[in-house]
Specification:
Blueprint lengths: L17 H7 L2 H15 L8 H22 L10 H4 L1
Length: 86
Amino acid sequence: MKHQYRITPEGRGKEPSDAELLRYRDQGKLLYNYQRARSALHRKPLYKDPKSFIVLLLIVLLAWFISEHAKEPPMMDPKAAPEERR
């Protein structure tokens, strides 16, 4: 959502009426967001969940293996011509 700001010499524009404010007020959405945030506080941490911990551990080990494998220089073919070995 982009905000459009207008700066005019006359100052701020007209204030919205009470009817317009009531039209945009949504108590159900506010309550839903509060309940969702409150339930997230008591969720089990990722490192204490066994399945998630194993998946996280596999991802870390795979990343470590790939990084170690990338450090090794490529193997040269011993039958290659001397010009190619340089």
